[in-house]
Amino acid sequence: MQVQAAVMLQPGQIEIREFDKPTPADDSLLLQVDKVGICGSDKHMYLGHTALKFPVIPGHEVVGTVSEIGKNANQVMNVMGGPIKAGDRITVVPGSKNCGRCYYCLHVPGRPTLCSGRTIYGFSNSETPPYLNGEFSEYTYIHGNSWVYKIPKDIPEEISVLTEPVAVATRAVERACAPGLPQVGDGYSIGSSVAVLGCGPIGLLVIAVLRDSGAGTIIATDLVDSRLEMAEQMGADVVINVGNTTPEERVEQIQSLTNGVGVDIAIECAGIPAVFSEALDVVRRGGKVIEVGHYTDSGETQVRPHQICNKDLDVCGVWAYPQIQFQTALDFLQRTRAPLHKLITHHLPLNQLEIGIDMLGKEGVYKVVIEPQS
Q1: Are residues 111 and 34 in the same domain?
Q2: Where are any strands of DSSP class E within 223-328?
Q3: How many Cα atoms sit within 13 Å of 371 on the Cβ side?
Q4: pTM above 0.85, yes or no
Q5: Is the pLDDT assigned to residue 319 strictly greater than 70?
Q6: Contact (CB, 8 A) for 19 and 2
């Protein structure tokens, strides 16, 4: 049997190719891909902003059904909510288990995303068997070094495809609680004021997580009115269109909402370098800035180091998430009151992946989902 997959031969060039359907090894499984979201990083890959060894089968925001499973897979994989069997609905963490041997595994074991020996579904070269190591494909080969989560039955199928981006969003909010030992007035807690700069899918999910976790005033900024309207539906209290205001006006408005000092936490989700600088402007002294938008290198911006010192700021990066973050994401999807189904705006077949990538960032487009079985 032949399996179709979308292969990115080089930036800007995707072809639908056929591969032999593999039989999983004893420690592996074959996943029928039911839904996979298009991530902003997929678009950056397509535009040539990511240093990878092509060809690559992209796609990493997956929900699927176990088609075949090796006899030892449940014992070798990290299976959460299992054991799993053929026919079960699962999601897979893009990053593999940690190697346990590199500098970062040995010296910084609490930050598994820094492991230099990980492999990542959707970002790995696809020239060698079993080839199907990305999820814009009818089937994906899930190797024994993987983290697999059985999807709880009470999570609606439509929003289960958001598990991976919700992992990003929950990690961003959790980073606002770090670093160091908590002190009065430090970090994120119930009632904290937060500015979310950029209301794409990740920014909108961050707003939903903040709302459900007890944030105080949530202020959202973006260029697009429809995104700001969606931000309000996700839980933002105040929205600001950056196209209608100057940076100075935005600082003044945010300070007027926060006792004249600025927000406790600023979370940069736009992936635009200048927005990081604005995050430093809108946060109060002693506050925290969380940088989550720059998974790829979008260039430079001007920063005044004195501002960071003078404000005594904590600036925290977010490089993906620990593999166990998927449990937090699934817990959130089970409990949230946010209308997350509204974030999934388009469903497309596999052969329209390039159309979907081109749609990202346009008016009224949030999460585009590819359905390879359609």
Answers
A1: yes
A2: 238-241, 263-268, 283-291, 314-317
A3: 8
A4: yes
A5: yes
A6: yes
